[in-house]
């Protein structure tokens, strides 16, 4: 039986057995501890497994004392298995922290995904050096490989890379791959040039009136060449303007991680007008489906059998326009 299955069986016993619950609470009070309950894992939430193992490891001494006075065939983990659980919790802690942080983020979240994967990879490699359990070391090696694989995939998705580059807290520091970083910078310059072109109000082939009066009456003979040269000059100018704006933004010092990137762009929209428009587009991308799930959960509480006659506009106000949510 694997360690997780053994722990799940033990936790299930203390959650379903009345005598087991009471005895565990009594033992904790006798030890001068607060009476904590066991946490059972949920199949659809990986971090619930982490929480289950963490609570069990915290209560390992009360659990052992409670089982000694109960009539049950459920056995606790051995000391070796507890050491393995401790090492596994140490390795999984960065994943748990990242999951909690992204789930709690209400504003800018997509830009954090790639930097978090880089930090997770760095943290696991550091912690793996001090592991004593072979099982935990194997877990760490597998997780490092998986994180690198997912990081490569994430750094190939523009909806993740563009927010990271446009977040003044991270910019170029969030990427694991230097090649993917250069691709993203090139993409940002291209998108910035598109914004500049779309914002131009002067028709492409239209010449100023003074130049039109001075031009010789040659009909449309030179129209193709003149329009091509004019278009090429404008395109070159737009590309240069986009490159200058992006390079100037990237050369600035990064914001502190605790600062608000939206406040930054609100203050810098005159200095970087085109990047500001791109920031409005990309920084609103969510990192996960957690915000949507929360809205559905809140909707289930608002629109119930007893409150099924609410006006749709009222429901919309309660769910989306209430600033206290």
Describe the overall structure.
The chain has 325 residues and is mainly alpha-helical. The protein folds into three domains: 1-77, no CATH class; 88-200 and 236-288; 290-321, no CATH class. It contains 15 helices and no strands. The protein has helices spanning 3-16, 18-30, 46-58, 60-68, 79-104, 110-128, 134-154, 158-166, 178-199, 209-214, 223-251, 261-268, 273-282, 290-302, 312-321. α5 (79-104) runs antiparallel to α6 (110-128). The protein is elongated and about 100 Å long.
- Overall pLDDT confidence: 85
Specify the biggest β-sheet: none
Structural class: mainly alpha
Q: How many β strands by DSSP?
A: 0
Counted up, domains total 3
C-alpha Rg (nearest Å): 29 Å
Instruction: Label the overall shape.
Output: elongated
Low-confidence stretches: 209-216
User: What is the first-to-last residue Cα distance?
Assistant: 44 Å
Percent of sequence in beta strands = under 5%
Helix fraction, binned, reads: 55-70%
Order of helices and strands: HHHHHHHHHHHHHHH
Protein name: Zinc finger BED domain-containing protein 1
Domain HAT C-terminal dimerisation: 245-324
Subcellular location: Nucleus
Keywords: Metal-binding, Nucleus, Zinc, Zinc-finger
């Amino acid at each position: 039986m694997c360690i997780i299955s053994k722990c799940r069986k033990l936790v299930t016993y203390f959650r379903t057995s009345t005598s087991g619950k009471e005895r565990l609470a009594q033992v904790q009070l006798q030890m001068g501890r607060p009476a904590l309950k066991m946490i059972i894992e949920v199949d659809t939430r990986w971090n619930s497994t982490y929480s289950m193992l963490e609570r069990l490891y915290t209560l390992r001494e009360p659990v052992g004392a409670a089982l000694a006075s109960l009539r049950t065939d459920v056995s606790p983990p051995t000391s070796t298995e507890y050491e393995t659980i401790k090492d596994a919790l140490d390795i999984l802690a960065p994943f748990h922290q990242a999951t909690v942080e992204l789930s709690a983020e209400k504003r800018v979240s997509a830009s954090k995904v790639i930097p978090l994967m880089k930090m997770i990879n760095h943290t696991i490699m550091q912690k793996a050096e001090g592991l004593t359990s072979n099982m935990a070391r194997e877990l760490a090696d597998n997780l490092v490989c998986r994180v690198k694989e997912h990081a490569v995939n994430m750094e190939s998705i523009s909806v993740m890379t563009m927010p990271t580059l446009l977040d003044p807290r991270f910019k170029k520091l969030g990427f694991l791959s230097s090649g993917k970083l250069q691709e993203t910078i090139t993409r940002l310059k291209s998108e910035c040039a598109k914004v500049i072109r779309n914002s131009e109000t002067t028709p492409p082939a239209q010449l100023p009136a003074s130049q039109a009066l001075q031009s010789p009456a040659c009909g449309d003979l030179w129209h193709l060449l003149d329009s091509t040269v004019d278009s090429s000059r404008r395109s070159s100018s737009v590309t240069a303007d986009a490159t200058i704006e992006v390079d100037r933004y990237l050369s600035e010092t990064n914001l502190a991680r605790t600062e608000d990137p939206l406040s930054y762009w609100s203050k810098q929209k005159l200095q970087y007008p085109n990047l500001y428009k791109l920031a409005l587009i990309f920084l609103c991308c969510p990192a996960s489906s957690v915000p949507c799930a929360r809205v559905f959960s809140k909707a289930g509480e608002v629109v119930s059998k007893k409150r099924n006659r609410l006006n749709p506009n009222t429901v919309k106000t309660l769910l989306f326009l209430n600033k206290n949510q």
